Q: What sequence folds into this?
């Protein structure tokens, strides 16, 4: 008999906090799918106009659209959890007082909104 | 007698650094990029002509795009997949590390090559 403690592959199913952790880890998968789509898009762009059009057609596939919609939701979920982490890992002190965590979280969301504005400007500006 | 110990410098800070930088990019850049290139463009809400896309990407900005939107998020994503596999009790740790980090490195290198070839 061995006294080494062993964990089963399904250890995380026993507790809701562990399940939430695994769900968060899972957001890496749709992200990777989108990155592969994007990489293929860049390749098509380098191949010429016909390939570029073809890539856009492939991106219209309902299954691809669905996974990318999940990736979009996953990126927002990741942002939401990641931004809460920052004030805890790196509290910022200004003039002797600690900047409130809520301000740092809001600042990071402002960053997301500015990137959105930048990309929107590239398309519509 | 003083025993001489040999310390091997760990390469883990590199992977955690790339993971952390990629985490920022994933949170700040990716929502907009996925929304526009992954959803609005295929749905026809916005359009992007070949000439315009090509001129924009095969410039300095293309390299920034590859770094911030593909390479760093790829290392972030595969770092998490690596550790999720450890969490699921897969024992081949060295192999998993090579496969995940190798995949991220290959994807990044491929995109940079595409950029470089298109630029020349």
A:
């Amino acid at each position: 008999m061995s006294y080494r403690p062993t964990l089963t592959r399904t250890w995380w199913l026993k507790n809701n906090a562990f399940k939430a952790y695994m769900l968060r880890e899972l957001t890496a998968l749709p992200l990777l799918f989108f990155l592969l789509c994007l990489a293929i898009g860049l390749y098509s762009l380098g191949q010429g106009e016909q390939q570029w059009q073809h890539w856009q057609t492939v991106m219209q596939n309902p299954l691809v659209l669905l996974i990318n919609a999940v990736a979009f939701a996953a990126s927002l979920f990741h942002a939401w959890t990641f931004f809460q982490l920052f004030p805890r890992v790196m509290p910022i002190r200004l003039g002797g007082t600690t900047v409130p965590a809520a301000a740092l979280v809001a600042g990071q969301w402002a960053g997301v909104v500015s990137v959105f504005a930048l990309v929107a400007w590239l398309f519509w500006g | 007698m003083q025993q001489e110990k040999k310390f091997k410098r760990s390469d883990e800070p590199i992977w955690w650094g790339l993971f952390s930088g990629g985490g920022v990019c994933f949170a700040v850049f990716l929502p907009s990029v996925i929304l526009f290139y992954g959803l609005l463009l295929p749905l026809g809400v916005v359009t992007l002509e070949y000439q315009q896309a090509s001129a924009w990407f095969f410039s300095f900005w293309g390299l920034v795009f590859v770094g911030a939107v593909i390479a760093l998020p790829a290392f972030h994503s595969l770092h998490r997949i690596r550790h999720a596999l450890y969490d699921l009790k897969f024992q081949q740790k060295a192999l998993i590390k090579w496969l995940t980090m190798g995949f991220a490195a290959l994807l990044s290198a491929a995109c940079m090559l595409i950029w470089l070839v298109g630029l020349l």
About this structure: Chain B has one domain: 13-119. Helices of chain B lie at 12-28, 30-40, 50-57, 60-87, 93-119. The radius of gyration of chain B is 19 Å. The mean pLDDT of chain B is 93.
